[in-house]
Model the fold of this input.
Amino acid sequence: MTFHAIDRDTDYLLPPSVQEWLPEAHLARYVVDVVEGLDLSALERAYAGRGSEAYHPATLLSLLIYGYATGTFSSRKIERATFDSLAFRYIACNRHPDHDTLFYFRKRFGKKFQSAFVQVLQIARENQLSRFGTVSLDGTKIHANASRHSALSYGHAEKIEAHLKAGVQELLALAESADQSSVPDGASLPDEIKRREDRLAAIVVAKAKLEARAKERYAQESAEYEAKRATRAAKEAATGKKPGGKPPTPPESGPRADDQINLTDEESRIMKVAGGGFEQCYNAQAVVDTESMLILVPDVTQATNDKEQVEPMVGKMQENPEGLNQPETLLADTGYFSQRNVTACVDTQITPLIAVKRDAHHSPWRERFTEPTPLAENASAVDAMKHALKTKAGRAAYALRKQTVEPVFGIIKSVMGFRQFLLRGLENVQNEWTLVCLAWNLKRMAALRLQ
Done:
């Protein structure tokens, strides 16, 4: 048996051209080709033109997109990869942007990633990768860059506040007394007092934010309460009978004892996650094309459930350019169902197929081969949708949901490895999710071009 010689002393030179470093079908080449063809003039104009030469926005954006597409999210790791990885070297033209440059580019120009996102979708449409006729809407919880153990509830804040105030009074009394023999050696009373006063100040700020949130919640709940009362009153006036069921309960003002704020990322929320338990998260939403599995609309919300996300996501979708803004059908699971959401889709000339309830497992096999009774002429939008979901065509269309949007989330989390935001604050997180979805779309388009 002969072996290759172990020789680490012979000098080797990289090819003289970076074009020789990677195979023609490599993802890094595709990312560079697409990004350098985008209109990035808004990014270019943001540079002042003073000082030393800056890295071109196309180079930095390509590095970030390829990093997120391949599971390299940290700006420090991307900088290191420009030394260690041929793909990153190729994108960076054998240069090495430092992590501060990458970090501030991502944070400063996060809002402008949306323009690049839309332009990439236009390229997909021009290349006829899909007709964008049927879309699926879903959400997934993604961990915030904060621990749930950093959360503080209003009730606990009041207890800590009382304890700290008592401690400050005790230390002040001890500092004013003539006999300080009880003070331990090495202890500084001014430092101990300041430490407690600083914590008190932080708790006061946290409580004020919780009180402001409670005020907004009370205003919203009061409006909903009045609307329900008005509906019941109108129904009673129309029928002459008192409506059945319990009358709506008026909301309570003020913060609740279990209202929480996270001291690391105050805009994140405690959310129930898959598999059980609660974590500090954001709710990432996506509208996914069922034919190409490309994401049409990314967004992030603080809402713990999906009930209120249909209207804003449809609205964002209609802001897209022509051909990407008016699908024929929208699919969504039961978490999105409400009469208001169904009506919102119908009003925008989109056919909704939103599950009304969870289907029972192992349903009778004959149901798959039967059609429902004809729909009444005066049926409401909800009744029409329920009827459509029972038809063979409706069942087949709705079945596309599980094989489009859910796999996209699975690939983003398990293959690309994106399970936690790096940035903090709702706006920054929204921009980062746009970057994640942009990376997914380019990764997917690179695969579709080879089919």
